[in-house]
Amino acid sequence: MKTAGKYVFSREHGYNASKSTKRRARRRETTPRPEHLALDLSDRARVIGTLLDFRRNNPLVASICRLRETDVVGQGIIPQVNSGSNDLDDELEGLWSEYSRNPELSGSMNMRDLQRSLASMPLIFGDGGLLLTKEGKVQMVEGDRIGTLEGQGFFNRENPKKVNPGAKRIIDGIELNSHNRAIAYHIGTREDGFLRDIRRIKSENFLFHFKRIRPTQIRGIPELAPVADDLQDLDEYDEIEMISAKISATLSAVIKREGAMDFELADQEDEEERLQYFEPGQFQYLEPNEDVSVISGNGRPNVSAIDYVTYRLRKIGSSLGIPVEFLLQTIGETSFSASQGMILLYQATIESEQRELIKVMDRLWRWKVATWIASRKIKIDDNLDPFSLRWQPPGFRWVNRQAQVQSDATYLGLGAISLDDISATFGHDATTSLERKAKNIQEAKRIAEAYGIDDWQMLFNPFPTTAQANLMELMARDDGSAEVDDSTD
After folding, report:
1. CA angle 146-152-155, nearest 5°?
2. pTM of the model
3. pLDDT of 67-104, one tens digit each?
4. CA–CA separation, 88 and 94 (whole Å)
5. Is residue 20 part of a domain?
6. Is position 322 within any domain?
């Protein structure tokens, strides 16, 4: 009757995900909670502290952050202006290049360092941004510096349905209007783990950078937060395996006998040490009623540990879009086709991260151009648009360099890509490539003339070259005085 009652009187669930069991009760929410309640300021500080410790001491997290910074930014994401005037484009790009040498208020970072810090910031802090100062420079602000003092928030933490009367609508350090739009950020300094000297910064003076999980999200969530337990488990598992391997590599012994207290007293009175260390080729005799037990770690090192750790690493990498071969630097151990597939998957992740970073850089560009216009460093005509530009991120290199060169040449001839796209894989733009090539040609001509070489091109290509062409087309370029046979021998 009890079993039948479950089917007769129980409410049916349309999806198994809504069912709650004793095991899953703590993971099944009755009502959806927003991120600022699921991860409030105190929990956020605790998570960031844990991840910062991983960043310093966990080699896997250090590898993840290095890959994010190196592959997303490379030599830097540079602007290519398309204002409608070549002179204005060159002037704006020159001002940006000069500004990029020292854009940060402390003077410790250039534009590339700034972009690298922004790219890896969501991994640890979840969010952050750039504070725009009156000096025309920016200040890096990590996510743990955004917040309010206890009791100043809009929501009552003990009872989220209630609000603090007369308080501004401030949620986790972000002041919002009635349309859920940020109008100000409350930013302070971290000293001894506490947030101090909090200032109210208007939203137009702060470039906020975070990734959304849902449209109405207010604060970003650290990307490494979902895999923090996995990282901790792997760290502990590795430590346990290392201890077991060390025990297995040594020979330890314990002496057992009746009357252990008498044995200890006798050992203290005896001038010669009793059996404590094993020496090679040495025999020692035990006393009556004494026995020796050897301590050893059987089955160590664990041969299946590598496969298990690799599986856990794949879980961590999949949440971040990084194949495990990139985390362990083992991409060469697979086949060429598999390596190409892994690179394509990883390339999609990098391009997505670059698009997120370009959003912030585009807002920074508009701010700097507006500053230059206000200070009359540049003059703008009505028919020109100084804010029109494209950002050139670093290109993604292939495994097969020869195939890459051939495909680049084909796409360049079709117009599918530009010389800037090709030059980006080497960390510079098309203008730099052409200028370097022109300088090399001028230097080759000078050297050829100095050493009596008739053709300066021999310095670039001293070996004979071959080419395929239609002989009839070549002869048609002549004056046609000679008759030509149809053969192309």
Report:
1. 95
2. 0.73
3. 999 999 988 999 989 888 888 998 999 999 999 999 99
4. 10
5. no
6. no
